[in-house]
Specification:
alpha+beta, globular, 16 strands, five-stranded antiparallel β-sheet
Length: 338
């Protein structure tokens, strides 16, 4: 297994208390905003019905801008209301308005949300800089709204981070040491904007460094530390082979599932579900250079791992899939093609 170098970029400065004055071109009236009252968050869907695809989970207390409201009244979970088309920072979809409460003029979170909507600065670093200054200015006067302000800011930065990753991940040299890596001017610049970079198998990957923004807010979000550690579960494959044993993959799948059960309303739930799904694929099928079979027979340690899964993880959402997979292999006496 090759070594995996994770380079975390931290923000070492103190929170600025400078008030940022909004560019008049960005200023707008805070109208038609509503607060999400559902304590576990509210699903944003791509159409106005309960069975349509979920776009994302909107966090509790987030402010959304109402774009339109369906005429037909419906009843969902004992609540009467209408489907409303809303926008949250950079996402548009439908929610059930029985879980919305109209905001009043001067609502700081709605003001910040609208500011981010109007932030059309093309340069990603400059756009993040403007958002950070406004975030800190509003946060300084609204500490009680720290959690939802952070979530709103992160939603704005996520697509910027993706663009920066596409632009710059291929430009970073393959450094031989951590010291050389940390001296890179681009790494330093990313550092200043709260982006985390890690290198695995010679490739760079960018993430938002939650600590950078949470230090400003001085809040402890339940599950955030555990969530950060789950990011280390992404890398499975070494060069032409599985870099962790089958039992370790099983452990990682269950770790993700246990987290989701413990924090069902965690906003990054969709991302974590994707992690578990991606872990399941090599667990069941192996890899190009690490097949399930050797000399026409399933490797004994793989068979043992499946049996352990079925014995210890009956509540896993993957239980039936793995059970069927195991039963099929058992019928063939654990023989397979090479």
């Amino acid at each position: 297994m090759k070594s995996k170098f994770i380079f975390k970029i931290f923000f070492w400065g103190l929170m600025t208390q400078t008030i940022f004055f909004i560019d008049p071109a960005m200023a707008a009236v805070n109208e038609n905003f509503a607060r999400i009252t559902a304590k576990s968050g509210l699903n944003l869907r791509n159409s106005h019905n309960k069975t349509s695809k979920v776009v994302l989970l909107l966090p509790a207390d987030a402010r959304v801008r109402i774009l339109e409201t369906a005429k037909a009244e419906e009843s969902i979970d004992g609540k009467n209301g209408h489907w409303a088309k809303v926008r949250w920072v950079n996402n548009t979809g439908w929610v059930f308005d029985a879980f919305l409460e109209k905001t009043k003029a001067g609502d700081a979170v709605a003001d910040f949300t609208l500011f981010l909507e109007k932030n059309n600065i093309k340069d990603e670093f400059q756009a993040i800089d403007a958002a950070l200054k406004e975030y800190r200015a509003i946060l300084h006067k609204n500490k009680n709204a720290a959690y939802v302000l952070y979530r709103t800011l992160k939603q704005f930065i996520q697509p910027k981070q993706n663009i920066l990753s596409e632009k710059y991940s291929g430009r970073l040299p393959k450094y031989g040491s951590t010291n050389d890596y940390e001296k890179d001017p681009l790494i330093k610049k990313l550092d200043a904007y709260g982006l985390q970079v890690y290198m695995e198998e010679g490739e760079y990957f960018f993430y938002i460094n939650d600590s950078f923004y949470l230090n400003d807010a001085a809040i402890n979000i339940p599950g955030m530390k555990e969530y950060s550690s789950l990011r280390n579960l992404y890398g499975i494959w070494a060069e032409c082979g599985v870099s962790v044993p089958w039992e370790e993959i099983r452990s990682r799948i269950i770790t993700v599932e246990n987290f989701m059960n413990k924090y069902p309303a965690f906003p990054e739930s969709r991302e974590l579900n994707e992690v578990a799904d991606r872990l399941l694929s090599p667990y069941l099928a192996g890899g190009e250079c690490t097949p399930l079979c050797v000399n026409g027979q399933i490797e004994p340690f793989i068979k043992d791992s499946y049996e352990m899964f079925l014995k210890e993880n009956k509540k896993s959402k993957y239980y039936l899939k793995i059970k069927n997979h195991y039963e099929n292999l058992k019928k063939k006496e654990f023989k397979c093609g090479e």
